[in-house]
Amino acid sequence: MPLRFQFAFLGRLRCTTCSAKRGRSLGLALILVFGTHAGFCQGSAPASVQVVSSDAVPGAAVESSSSETNLATPPAGAVKEPVESEIIVEGLASYGHYRIFASGSGAHLYTAGVEYDRHSWGRFLGARLDYTAEILPLVLLNTATASDIWGTPTTTNREIVPGLDISPIGFRLMWFDKKKWKPYMIAKGGVIGFTQKVLSQRSTYESFSLQSGVGLQVKMNQRMDLRLGIFSDFHFSNAFIVPVDPGLDVMSANLGVSYHLGQTRAR
Question: Cα–Cα distance between 219 and 206 in angstroms, integer?
């Protein structure tokens, strides 16, 4: 065979070999590309499964559901009872006076208003201890038209002076509060004011007030009680915020009707 034909044949053979190698390389590259893409798609699937992995574990789903139910539902027996409280519409009338903490005399006091009692402080000395507040929009003082600086009348002429009393601080002890007959002891403190100076023209329009008393509260039905204030003391004075402080202490009786709020069970 001539020499140039040999070179031509070898060159064609080399080109054929190179084409086959290029074809195999291209095939391998395509396999790698598609294989990597398929592997990536298959690898992304577990991530979506992990997001909802609680569905794959029944125990975890049940535990989560029961936990949410426990949070939404209060435990049995944990229902909070309403706080016992009551509103009392009451009236007071004095029937005498004495000189212990004040020097005024010859005056009579009449009041009417509303008292609020709330069982806020548990029990003390075997009794229920309540917070007490009171407002008396009607206060009438029957007193002499003229008195000396210590509140002693100097005339027989009399007048009625209206006023107002607010007692935001107080307590009540009530024994046998679940029974029909309920003895109690009460104390209240606040401020009282009149439309003019009383007991002495050198005194003040406003004074501090302090009430204390004992009595009996009688159950009438599930909502209503009758208050019988057997004895109480009503004191007011200005505590010497001015040089003259006659003040007054009166013995009084108290009568009222109590209405119980928020009752859900028999008392």
Answer: 37
